[in-house]
Specification:
ten-stranded mixed beta sheet, five-stranded mixed β-barrel, about 15% helix, about 30% strand
DNA sequence: GGTTAGGTTTCG
């Protein structure tokens, strides 16, 4: 038996043959006698089981000597044959193993992984792995949260939780519960832990006493028909239950029972975690959580489904969870699912949200007039669209939340009130008389009745439905902003230090005003000083494009849904399929996108060249995976090329899908300029296999990520639209490729744009830009020559802070 | 290893 699992609770060393002696991993070298020696360590990484040929497996794992963090105490272990297969089944990441019967080889990856310079090779009858397991804990409720390995790991802990029915709760205990949500409030700011009286008494303030805390309030029920109030305090919003509507199901771990007002309530306690499920019968049982370590098994799935059907039979869930604008009744309170188009802070206690849901309200709606320069998002819309837009006034505590909303966000607004014949409204100007039959939408201050706003995730079914309703309407092409240009003075020279950008070109020319510039001939470079009046698109993903340097075409990044569909279609093509001779086939486990789902094997192809060099993580050709699975696997392999079977042959996917996944980065090829084919890569002597090498081998013309934005700039004389494109990277100081893959780079762009065009700030406060503009002529669709301006040789420089606070680190 | 809140509107 090559893999030997020691009995539960066996002490370390139990049942390991006595003639074997343990040596420290750090002492392993090619020169020592390893007969009758063992090494012991914790499995810190467990690679996938790879099928090399019929019934020949290979698996790589890293074990680390416990109590030691030094690199040389972690060693690669390569398992072959049945041992690899058995190890894959019996051993989990985190297990402590003892290995015997190994041989010592040179680690080919020492420079890369900085682990032990040797590796252990284990194959044949002598090789044996002993696994020591700790006894399972008696009381699962007293355990800390189960931590799962890195994202790639597909293990699900075997730990079991017990759940107490809501009818069986006893005071003074810590329990795990399930329940159907019958009432909820979105997380709201609590007073926090800074207690003024305490502070005065102690005159000492500890750092953690100052933290803001959020509080969620909900009421749940189950088959016992008990309705139990729950209060959740967490500093982080993402740790709160993600409840979208009544009927959602929550599972909470480690809540304590308390007696309050003659009934039992639940409050989160140390180690608390919560997952939420949609309450609709028949939909996927997908846990909503931001936690990476969810324990979720078949039993949980069953519990959720039982609660769903019980709730359905009890008519707990309202038939119409939210009201479309078309069905809004005057004086009524209602929940609205909508998309935010624009917003404008009106005063410190009130913000205007301009939303739509694709339906038209039969009542005349109040329209709030605001100054264009306080509006975030488009300042005007086509008349057709305007007719569908509802203006919502949100007050007090909701103003702060509204600050974080971005045009384009999908929202659910709870307990909105339709007020007929509205009286005074901030921002309403005399140009619009207050008419009695207007309906105004107010989100009053406070959190009573669950009043609040929630951003819905893109993948929620309600958002999908909303998108369909909205897509039925044509897009507004141009913003017909007829607002008169407000005149702002050009800054005096002494304010030059407040400029937010500088030119780095070599043109030595005097700045001109925008109106002068427009009179000059095209085809030359100009310098201007201007402020950013507006820009588009506001959504970064709409600014990111793919550009082909060969045919100069520009295209949008394919929509995730479209790509996901391509992967799905590709996976449906049945085998068998012949792979070229330079590829070896094997199988790996698909990551589970749903913890309850069954294990699925995916076919992978590896180049025999790379395989012989033990470079199996550097490039794989992956078949039959979904987009999400490919993404997840990309954290474990340097390069993943998705492939499919087509007409019995192995081919690449359609070029609408990325042809390559490199970590978080995806690469696309030009459909026009590529001649894709599966050709062998020459990797000998190539240290880093990257997108260029792969694209070249596969006959793909690589598309470049570019950022394309239109800046509307203004000075005292005129406005002008200028494109930022070729020099966007030097303007923002981050590459579009980074922006496509990395949140930090995205934040950097958002911060830059916010400082150039502060949401809610007046134009007067905006920094001035020193710009180098290239004026040229481009043809529009009708073949007409149009002037076009491009921002070049200009870099954003952070305008100096106006207050004296030190810069944050 | 524990406080915060502990549903219930309606003013703008």
């Amino acid at each position: 038996m090559p893999v030997c699992v020691l009995p539960e609770g066996a002490g370390p060393g139990a049942q390991i043959p006595t003639h074997l002696t343990r040596i420290p991993i750090s002492l392993i070298s090619n020169n020592i006698d390893i007969s009758n020696k063992t090494v012991k360590g914790k499995v810190v990484r467990k690679g996938p089981l790879v099928l090399l040929a019929a019934d020949n497996f290979i698996l790589k794992t890293v074990i680390q000597e416990e109590d030691s963090q030094a690199d040389a105490s972690s060693i690669n272990v390569v398992l072959m044959g049945t041992l690899a297969k058995d190890f894959n089944q019996a051993v989990n990441q985190g297990d402590v193993v003892v290995a015997s019967g190994f041989t010592v080889g040179k680690s080919p990856t020492v420079h890369k992984d900085k682990l032990h310079p040797c590796n252990l090779l284990m194959s044949g009858d002598n090789a044996c792995i002993y696994v020591a397991r700790l006894p399972p804990p008696r009381d699962p409720t007293s355990l800390p949260a189960v931590k799962r390995g890195p994202a790639l790991s597909t293990e699900v802990s075997t730990q079991k939780y017990t759940y107490v029915g809501l009818g069986d709760l006893k005071t003074g205990s810590v329990v795990n519960v399930y329940g159907v949500v019958v009432f909820f409030k979105q997380p709201f700011k609590s007073r926090g832990t800074e207690d003024a009286t305490q502070y005065a008494k102690d005159n000492i303030r500890l750092a953690h006493d100052n933290t803001v805390n959020f509080c969620s309030s909900l009421k749940i029920t189950d088959q016992s028909n008990q309705k139990i109030g729950c209060t959740i305090f967490c500093e982080k919003l993402e740790d709160h239950p993600k409840i979208f509507k009544i009927g959602d199901i929550v599972r909470m771990h480690r809540v304590k029972t308390q007696f309050f007002n003659d009934s039992i309530t639940l409050v989160n306690t140390f180690g608390f975690s919560v997952v939420t499920f949609d309450g609709a019968v028949g939909t996927n049982v997908e846990p909503r959580t931001s936690s990476r370590s969810v324990h979720f098994d078949q039993k949980d799935c069953q519990t959720v489904e039982e609660l769903r059907s019980w709730a359905a039979s009890q008519a707990l869930i309202p038939s119409v969870p939210t009201t479309p604008l078309s069905a809004v009744q005057p004086k009524a309170y209602f929940d609205l699912t909508c998309q935010l188009l624009a917003k404008a802070p009106l005063d410190t206690t009130c913000t205007l949200l301009r939303v739509w849901d694709g339906t038209r309200c039969p009542h005349t709606l109040l329209k709030v007039i605001v100054e264009p320069n306080v509006t975030v998002g488009p300042t005007s819309f086509s008349t057709d669209r305007e007719n569908l837009i509802a203006d919502i006034l949100v007050y007090d505590n909701h103003v702060e939340f509204a600050r974080q909303l971005k045009p384009g966000d999908f929202l659910r607004i709870y307990n909105l009130r339709a007020i007929p014949g509205s009286s005074k409204v901030p921002g309403l100007t005399s140009s619009q008389p207050v008419e009695v039959d207007h309906l105004a939408f107010h989100l009053h201050g406070g959190t009573a009745y669950g009043r609040g706003i929630r951003v819905l995730p893109q993948n929620s079914p309600d958002v999908q439905e909303l998108k369909r309703a909205i897509e039925a309407f044509p897009e507004d092409d141009e913003l017909n902003d007829s607002a008169l240009l407000e005149i702002w003075g050009t800054p005096p020279e002494s304010l030059a230090s407040l400029r937010a950008s500088e030119r780095n070109c070599t043109h030595d020319i005097e700045p001109v005003t925008l109106s002068e510039l427009k009179r000059f001939n095209l085809g030359r470079v100009h310098h201007v000083r201007a402020q950013l009046r507006s820009y588009k698109p506001h959504r970064l993903h709409q600014a990111l494009k793919l550009y082909c340097s060969k045919c100069s075409s520009m295209q949008d990044i394919p929509d995730d849904e479209v790509v996901a569909h391509l992967f799905l279609e590709a996976s449906k093509e049945p085998g068998p399929c012949s792979a070229p001779p330079w590829l070896l086939s094997g199988q790996i486990d698909a990551p589970k996108d749903n913890p309850g789902s069954l294990k699925r094997a995916l076919t992978v192809h590896l180049s025999s060249q790379l395989m012989s060099e033990s470079r199996t993580k550097e490039l794989i050709f992956l078949m039959g995976s979904t987009l999400e699975e490919t993404r997840q696997l990309a954290s474990g392999y340097q390069n993943i090329v998705p492939v499919r079977s087509s007409g019995g042959h192995l081919t690449l996917l359609d070029l609408s899908a990325p042809f390559l996944f490199r970590g978080r980065r995806k690469y696309y090829g030009c459909r026009r300029c590529s001649e894709p084919a599966l050709r062998e890569l020459c990797t000998e002597g190539v240290e880093l296999i990257d997108e260029t090498i792969i694209a070249k081998a596969l006959g793909i013309q690589l598309l470049q990520y570019v950022l394309l934005m239109a800046f509307e700039v203004q000075d005292a004389t005129d406005t002008l639209e200028a494109f930022l494109w070729r020099d966007a990277e030097s303007f923002f100081g981050v590459s579009p490729e980074e922006v496509a893959a990395n949140q930090e780079a995205q934040n950097c762009i958002h911060q830059t744009m916010d400082s150039l065009c502060p949401p809610g700030g007046s134009t007067g406060q905006r920094p001035w830009l020193d710009l180098c503009l290239m004026a040229s002529r481009t043809e529009d669709d009708g073949g007409q020559k149009q002037p076009s301006y491009q921002i070049c040789h200009t870099a954003f420089t952070k305008p100096p802070s106006t207050h004296s606070d030190p810069e944050p680190a």
